[in-house]
Amino acid sequence: MLDAMKKEIFLRKDELQNKNIQSLYFGGGTPSVLSADEIKSLIDEVLKYFNFKNDIEITLEANPDDLDKNFLKGLSDSPVNRLSIGTQSFFDEDLKLMNRAHNASEAEGSIKRAQDFGFENLSIDLIYGSPTSNLEIWKENLNKTVALEIPHISSYALTVEPKTALENWVAKGKVLNPKEEEQNREFYYMIDFLKDHGFEHYEVSNFAKPGFYSRHNSSYWKYQEYLGIGPSAHSYNGTDVRSWNVANNQQYIKKLNSNILAKETEVLSQQDQFNEMIMIGLRTVWGVDLDSLNQKFSENILERFNKEIQNKMEEGILKIDNNHLKIPEKHWFMADGIASDLFQV
């Protein structure tokens, strides 16, 4: 796999217009597949063809059970300077429901171990609105997060995905379906609590202390180009072309051994580009740049949109600030629904 990924880096080295890299992200369960030395080797390979900015953010996504002392020791000697840890909860009942491999003690221990090895730029994932939780438990999760001095939090409402154990349990009545009103209550409690503790709410599901915004994810939300390497990885040219690699490891390796890229590509229509800009932009504190929108899209696309935003501004669920269209934060829980009403269909 490592050789195939290096081959892909070489074959795609000219796809990015900007050769000065500001972020590098290792995700998708990588720590369970690659050693710290292999991660360093991939970083060295990227450096053959790209330049790293002096303050580059290099993130490794990991589960708590990946982060043992030996792995962290090796990682601390690498250029990796940020960890995103899939904690989900500090309560065992929540973790059992989510079918996680770690328990609550391991979740907390992995964070403390990472800090002991010098990783201060940490992000954790937290899930709210679980049937095994309630507002008091959610408060304890947030208190624990703040006490652990974690500077970045990504937090999502629990959803029942098709063909999962959770869907089966809900269907059989073993577990209650998550209640939207409870998730709404926990979401807005989280906003107030984290703001009181110095966090900035910069995307619907993301909170950071000043200086700790996820640079990598922010590039997605600002429609910047990115290059994804490895099975299932996605790429975007910053305008109208998106591609994704095959998910099957064997197919991925076989094609690259023959110097063939294992990817599929789609050209985004004007309608697709418009809808994506609206969906992503309205989830962020920056909003949608109306000047950019007017320059990029035709009057046919913008006519209905302009009428619809006037209606929603009168309802108070949209506002224009410095010529950027935004959803007031008190309506962020419904951001995706509000954005979808503005889509071109």
UniProtKB/TrEMBL annotation:
Domain Radical SAM core span(s) in chain numbering: 1-200
InterPro entries reported in the protein's UniProt record: Coproporphyrinogen-III_oxidase, Elp3/MiaA/NifB-like_rSAM, HemN_C, HemW-like, rSAM, rSAM_sf
Keyword Iron-sulfur found: yes
UniProt similarity note: Belongs to the anaerobic coproporphyrinogen-III oxidase family. HemW subfamily.
Species of origin: Chryseobacterium formosense
Highest rank taxon of the organism: Bacteria
The protein's name in its UniProt record: Heme chaperone HemW
One Pfam match: Radical_SAM
SUPFAM superfamilies: Radical SAM enzymes
Single GO MF annotation: coproporphyrinogen oxidase activity
A single BP term in Gene Ontology: porphyrin-containing compound biosynthetic process
Localization, UniProt: Cytoplasm
Primary localisation category: cytoplasm
Job description of the protein: Probably acts as a heme chaperone, transferring heme to an unknown acceptor. Binds one molecule of heme per monomer, possibly covalently. Binds 1 [4Fe-4S] cluster. The cluster is coordinated with 3 cysteines and an exchangeable S-adenosyl-L-methionine.
UniProt KW keywords: 4Fe-4S, Chaperone, Cytoplasm, Heme, Iron, Iron-sulfur, Metal-binding, S-adenosyl-L-methionine
GO CC list: cytoplasm
Keyword Glycosyltransferase (UniProt): no
